[in-house]
Amino acid sequence: SLLYPYGPHQGDETNPKHDDGTSEAIILSVPFTFYGKTHQTVFVNNNGVISFNEPIRQYTPDPLPLDGHPFVAPYWADVDNVLGGDIFYRQTTDPALLEDISQDITQYFPKSPFTATWALVVTWDHVAYYGSTSEKGNTFQAVLTTDSKIFYIILNYWDIQWTTGAASDGDAETGLGGTPAHVGFNSGDDTNFYNIPGSQTNAIINITTTSNVKIPGRWVFRVDDFQVTGVDPPQRNNDCWL
C-alpha cells in the first residue's frame, strides 16, 4: 500500500462524526514552515483540508488562491463521515516510520538528503460524501514532515471513488458531477498557490494514477519554500499554469 500505517492501533486520534466537522486545535510539537511562514497550530477538517491557525468547514471548494487561509487540500470536497468512514491523525517520532519517510523523500529529492525527525500523518479512511445513496468511499492520506530545516508534504491516494457531494451539485447515487474536489496548496497571501492537475474537474477521480514522483497515487512537494517538482507542463514556481 502507498499509505503509511494509520488507525487506532497506531495511536491515532479520530475526528468527531460531524458533517463539516473538524478536529480540535492540534498544537504541533515541531513548528511547521509553509510558504515561508512558520505555524504551530493545525486543524484536520473533515472535508479534506488541513488548515493552519483556524478550521475550514466549507464543503464546496473554491478556486485558489484564497486570501488569509493557509492550507493544504489533500482532497477538498463534501465529506460526510456520519454516513461512512473515519478520519485519523497523529504526530509521531516513531523511528521505523520516520526511516520509511526519509528513504522515500531522499529517493525523490536525491540532491537534498533528508532524515525526518517528526511527522503528522492524517488519513481519511473510506469516507462517504454528503447526500450519498451509495456505498462509495475515498481513502487518502497527507503527511507533513521535516528534518527541522526542510519541510515536505506527501499526498497519498489509495482509493478514490467519488468527487462531489450532493450539496455541491453532485449526483447522490454516483458522487460525480457538480463542483468536483480540489487538490492543492494555498499560501494565504492571495498570490502563491498550486493546483494539482485535474483539480475541480471530473479528472480528479483519476488522481490514484497520477504523480510528480513517478509513483502513481503519490504527490510530494517541498513546502517551506514551495517548489513544484516533476510536473508537466512547465509551471511557474508558485502558482500553476494549466
UniProtKB/TrEMBL annotation:
One of its GO terms (biological process) is cell-matrix adhesion. InterPro entries: Epithelial_Barrier/Signaling (IPR051495), NIDO_dom (IPR003886). It comes from the Eukaryota. Residues 1-22 are annotated as: Disordered. PROSITE patterns: NIDO. Residues 74-226 form the NIDO domain. Residues 10-21 have a biased composition (Basic and acidic residues). PANTHER family: MUCIN 4-RELATED, SUSHI DOMAIN-CONTAINING PROTEIN 2. This is TECTA protein. The lineage of its organism: Eukaryota, Metazoa, Chordata, Craniata, Vertebrata. The gene is Tecta_1.
